[in-house]
Design a protein that fits this description.
Elements lengths: L2 H13 L4 E9 L3 E8 L5 H13 L9 E5 L11 H5 L4 E6 L3 E9 L3 E11 L6 E11 L3 E6 L4
Parallel strand pairs: 2-3
Antiparallel strand pairs: 1-2, 4-5, 4-8, 5-6, 6-7
Helix pairs in contact: 1-2
């Protein structure tokens, strides 16, 4: 199976809905193709079916048999595309960098970085006891090793 042909077909299908974007395209043994897509507002089953049909109908099963799976990233799958941050503003995410692990609410996303916010208890500046303070951290995309949504029950 020619990877570039399949990739072009996936990109054609995604071009029909600008809110969707490709996360990963994998070719496994026995010509199994796995397409992982995400969207700014999520991805419906209808969109997965549409993408699958577009790819499948433009490939020739007579010349080469294959299986095709079009899916979305799982809830605990790390982010691989900066657009995934935008769709998760307001959610608690876990971020690993070279030097630290952070967990906080994603409050801002720009072209260069993200901003997390969280509350923590710290000793009072004067006197005994602790006080709740709000902390913020702004992280450049190139410093982030892994980021994913924290599932809260």
């Amino acid at each position: 199976m020619k990877r570039d042909v399949v990739q072009n077909l996936v990109e054609e299908a995604l071009a029909e809905n600008s809110r969707l974007f490709l996360i990963d395209l994998n070719f496994l043994e026995d010509n199994k193709i796995i397409v992982i897509v995400d969207g700014d507002d999520g991805v419906s089953v209808k969109e997965c079916v549409r993408i699958s049909r577009h790819v499948e109908h433009n490939l020739d099963r007579e010349s080469e048999d294959f299986s095709l799976e079009v899916t979305t990233p799982g809830a605990t799958t790390p982010f691989t595309n900066n657009r995934q941050y935008k769709k998760n503003i307001g959610r608690v995410i876990k971020v690993k960098t070279e030097t630290e692990n952070l967990e906080g609410t994603l409050v801002e996303v720009t072209e260069e970085d993200i901003t997390l916010e969280w509350k923590t208890r710290e000793p009072k500046p004067v006197g005994k006891g602790k006080v709740t303070v709000v902390k913020k951290a702004t992280l450049k995309y190139n410093t982030i090793k892994e980021a994913k949504v924290k599932i809260i029950f």
